[in-house]
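Two entries, shown back to back:
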Amino acid sequence: MIEEYPLSKKLLALSHVWENSLAGNFVISAKGAPEAVMDLCHLTEDVKKDLLVNVNIFANNGLRVLGVAKALFNKKTLPDSQHDFNFEFVGFIGLEDPVRESVPQAVQECYDAGIRVVMITGDYPSTAMNIARQIGLQNSSEAITGAEIESLSENELKERLKKVNVFARVVPEQKLLLVNAFKAIGEIVAMTGDGVNDAPALKSAHIGVAMGERGTDVARESSAIVLIKDDFNSIVSAVKMGRRIYDNLRKAMAYIISVHIPIAGASLIPVLFNWPIILYPLHVVFMELLIDPACSIVFEQEKEEPDIMNRAPRRKSEPMFGKNVVALSALQGLFALFFVIAVYKVALFFGQTINEARTLSFITLIVTNLGLILSNRCWKESILKTLKNKNKALGWVAAGALSFLVLAVYLPFLRQLLNFGLMHLIDIIIAFASGILSIICFEIIKLFFKKSLS
């Protein structure tokens, strides 16, 4: 092969020129869109019409159709255009590219999650619509071709984009046009691609998604995400993972606010009202040693909520930490503070020493802290249901907190260091009962915010 005439926006066909040294001439092979190849062969309209019947039969059965032509050239200098060759029409090739079994389900998951799926392809319109029907694409009975896209005004294209989901006979330059048009009507656009010519569209999209297996380096470098496995289901899994991470970040932030309210309150209130000190610096340090792993490990490992792929996408303007999350966190924290202070004051009222009252309130604080972790694991389900969902990190954090608490109360050195008093069984029961009551309150609060936190 000595020359290639590449595919172009004006002519959807490419030709290869081969040197035949024995005959002293050139052999040219052409392949491409059926209508483009028939045009290269300069066929009459009646012949084209008859041949297109076969193309439609192939395309309606979901086959990708290529036209094939050949030519001989005897001059020494090759022409600039493919049209300068005297092509002879050879026929059509129908290629079957079966839809993967996982794709229809993945497309349906997108629809359940409020995500619109659009097909942009260089295939024949009938082929594209047939494949669209196979994968369950909505409004698969209508398609816009690249030529139509070019002929529409900006406003006309925006109106068509609101309904049409299949775009056929599209060249790479028109992909960029479509991406920008979708953005102009307010859509958040994720664009997939693998070729060098896809790079502008991938770069322009809010989220460029490149194929990692068969994609070019240019496509990968232009994208925000590169798929290790070139499968549409991978994109759906990525959306699911992203939603889980977003949820868990919000839960961790809500927990941070709520757990620090009782700590701050128990440190400041005694100072303001001239009471004996409840929390010393060592107590706060111990609490932080419990809080940090809960935020960074426990919530990170939390599984997604059951309805995570049945929610509409959040609005672009919606903050991650909205007023409803702040209100939930504040109320949980205030209830936790109430029980910690109540236990402390009641213990003093019944004649227990300051160290014993401090110990009781600290145990209550630990139990409410664990309760806040459990309650914020899922805002849609109760603690009893979420306990069935395994989270190894939670078990280690809870075991570590309770183990240190036992040592702090019953090991003389630590008890003296932390200014604690020796606890009896009834004291432990009272403290744990208060902590459990606070957890019940957390769950009641959660019910009021259930719908607004979806």
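entry 2 starts here
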Amino acid sequence: MSNANAVPTPTPASRLWLLVPLALVAVVYLVWSSAGNFNHWPVYTVLFDLQAEGFRRGQLSLPVTPAPQLLAAANPYDRANSGYWIVDAIWHDGKWYLYWGPLPALLQALGKSLLGVYEIVGDQYLLIVFSLLSTVFGALLIEDIRQRMFSRVPRWVSVFCILALAFINPVVYLVATGGQYQAAIAGGQAFLVAGMWCAFRAVQGDAPERRRRLWLFGAGCAFGASLACRISLGAAAALVGLCAMLAAAWPCQRRSRAVLLNALCVGSAPLLSVAGLLLYNRLRFGSWLEFGMKEQVSYFEFKVSKSYFLTNLYAYALSPFELTCQFPFALQSAVRGPKGVPAWVPMANDYLVREPIAGFLSTAPLSWLSPVPLLVTARHACSLRREAWRSYAFLTLCFAVMGSISGVLVLFVYGATMRYLDDFIYGIALLSVLGAFTWLATRATALGRKLVGSAIAGLCSVTIILGLLLAYQGYDEHFPRRNPALNEKLVRLLSVCRHD
């Protein structure tokens, strides 16, 4: 590993080459979201857009007139009234609300106002923007880590890692069938990754103290925005912010004072965000702590229990996908693919097994390198006085938090689904990239570095291919249903066995 002090600070000009892979990612996202048919772009949901229109009209509820039958119903939450529901929305006092954070809808309202758009816009555009932001900030973070800490790692390895981050399952899977569920999750992750990049810039010891605090303030703003998309990210954002606050104060002579000032910089925006969310609850439901889940209308009761933990852990880590000889070869959907779990995995009787899921260890071979930084950090725990190892330990801890704590709540939910995997996949991917860089940088010979670099490229390539193939189906047989003519051509051209 290179000493951070010996490497020049990355400049904007040194990162201009990132525009090329980022442009490729943008094109792929657009093609997959549109099912290759830009003239008839599939629209799955418009709930965030409805909320945006509500905000533009000065109201917190959706601008939707409730069905008279629902207003007259003795129990509007009874399934007998489901024909009048907005599924998974909140029915409160004769009005419809959303339980997701308000920031995506606020951004949509602002964008539509600036562009003079008045017609309904699908939620998939929010999802594309958020996913692109995650890739942009992830790419900046990966390249900063390479330039500052792993100068022996060639740029082409960084390119493979960035593309793997962009296309790792289930990122494109969500882009392919974008709705309000996916947009809320992607928004939270986009700002969490952005905050992580700012936090890394803040802890660099060669930066002036004032600049480090500006980076900490930027990290805090990003973390506050992530909470306004998905409040369940609060614990992860708090832990990463705490690590950044302490790490940025380490080089300072007056550490106690630095810690206090850093805490104000990184903590002010998240605290304001939480206060805003509580006020939002109060104005809508008359209670500061009521986010609306109790009044959500759904076909399934939302249940959380420790009895689901091991089943979900298996599902998100190891659940396999189905390989076939027909394009797209890798399948996982609500109607196809292995839906059960092995006999050795405990499963509660009321556990839901109808949602699509394929574990990250099965679909993303790059993730096999995620334990490397954990082992290296544990081995060199006594070397934290050196800035390079301190930065390495900081990244390891923060990525581990993003890859676990940010999604810990979903491990206790009554069923696993592909979109919830997005709650922690970026942390796992970044931890794996750090492991890849470490593995390559520790090779002493040129031949060893070439072999390891080739192995990393192979792991990234398989991760990319599987992420794209699984996304081809998406939640709703995306390409086959939304562009059947193109699907028929691809199946006939690429399948290695007969298509009936």
